[in-house]
Amino acid sequence: MRFDVVTIFPEYLEPLSVSLVGKARARGQLDIRVHDLRRWTHDRHHTVDDTPYGGGPGMVMKPEPWGEALDAIIAPGSAATADGEAAPEQPTLIVPTPSGRPFTQALAVELSTRPWLVFTPARYEGIDRRVIDEYRERPEVHEVHELSIGDYVLAGGEAAVLVMAEAIARLLPGVLGNAASHQDDSFAPGEMAHLLEGPVYTKPPQWRGRGIPEVLLSGHHGRIARWRRDEAFRRTTRNRPELIEQADPEEFDQHDRKILAELGWDVSEATGRFGRPTPDVEE
Ligand code: SAM
User: Fold this and answer.
1) What's the gap in Å between 128 CA and the centre of ligand 1?
2) Does residue 97 contact residue 125 with C-beta atoms inside 8 Å?
3) Cα(96)–Cα(47) distance, integer angstroms
4) Domains plus CATH for the chain?
């Protein structure tokens, strides 16, 4: 898989050389290319921003350097792709922005199947809109995703790229030591799609007077799996109740429903979905 990142702070992406992503890169499984946007400026000051049309505070990233950079990177046989290997076909553009759709685990799974992702982390007030509109219409681009990593505003998109790149790269076959480990993760499509993973424990069996749940020592795989799922329900109803509310009740088996009932949850007649317990109202 190939990642290209265009940024005015190439050094910000250095963490992509460490840990699991760095190892996948060293093995040649991930080809990560970081490009300095200023390389595609032509004035003495390497200007990448200008004042916004319509006025207002802040600066906007100019379209010309972005257009030249993206053309050079995605063009078949271009200098940026010419180190011996042909570019994989059809890049998917990832535009980090707080005004994008939420980046989720389901999307990470989907994007991990693409051969080539091009990330465009911005600074200032973002990139001139025409750049995104231009590449949405380009036949050589597979798709353009405008994505947010959360409901807060960062100073720039580089940290968002680190987040998305790691979430996607760890799903590639062979990147995690145990291929099955991401299937039990919180939000993993399938049985965990609407659940957060419950608590985890390791040795020693006693630490500062605290033991571990008996069932985890039982060696009984069925009971352990059930306990883990119950704990996932407990944690999700506490920390992210909206995930349960959004789930199709068909996804829950009888025991799941029993646990939800114990936690005070019931299927709402109005929505047909599980609803959180109504707080007791004092007379
Ligand atoms: N004025 C913009 C707004 O309110 O939507 C915020 C611009 S922000 C200061 C600069 C850049 O940081 C964005 O263009 C984007 O690349 C990145 N960024 C900031 N917050 C982000 C988030 N939550 N998710 C993804 N990227 C983000």
Assistant:
1) 13
2) no
3) 21
4) 2-169 (3.40.1280.10), 186-275 (1.10.1270.20)
State the distance from the centre of ligand 1 to the C-alpha of 278, rounded, in angstroms. 37
Q: How confident is the model at residue 82 (pLDDT cuts 50, 70, 90)?
A: very low
Q: In this model, does residue 283 exceed pLDDT 60? A: no
DSSP one-letter code for 30: -
Question: Considering only CA atoms, which residue is closest to atom 23 of ligand 1?
Answer: 98
For the stretch 32-60, pLDDT in tens is 999 999 999 999 999 999 999 999 999 99
Q: How far out from the chain centre does Cα 271 lie?
A: 29
Backbone φ and ψ for 168, nearest 5 degrees, come out as -80, -45
pLDDT tens for each residue of 215-254: 999 999 999 999 999 999 999 999 999 999 999 999 999 9
pTM of the model: 0.93
Asked if 1 and 28 count as a contact pair (C-beta separation under 8 A), the reply is no
- Give the position, in ligand 1's atom list, of the atom nearest the Cα of 122: 16
Among 58-72, 101-115, 144-158, 264-278, which stretch is predicted with the lowest mean pLDDT? Answer: 264-278
Ligand 1 site, CB within 6 A: 96-99, 121-123, 125-126, 148-150, 152-157, 160
Angle ∠(99,151,236) on CA atoms, nearest 5: 130
Q: How much distance in Å is there from the Cα of 74 to the middle of ligand 1? A: 24
How does pLDDT run across 167-183, given as a tens digit for each residue? 999 999 988 877 777 88
Mutation choice for ligand 1 from 12, 48, 97, 129, CB with most ligand atoms inside 8 A: 97
- CA–CA separation, 186 and 258 (whole Å): 21
Of 73, 68, 69, 70, nearest to 2 (Cα)? 73
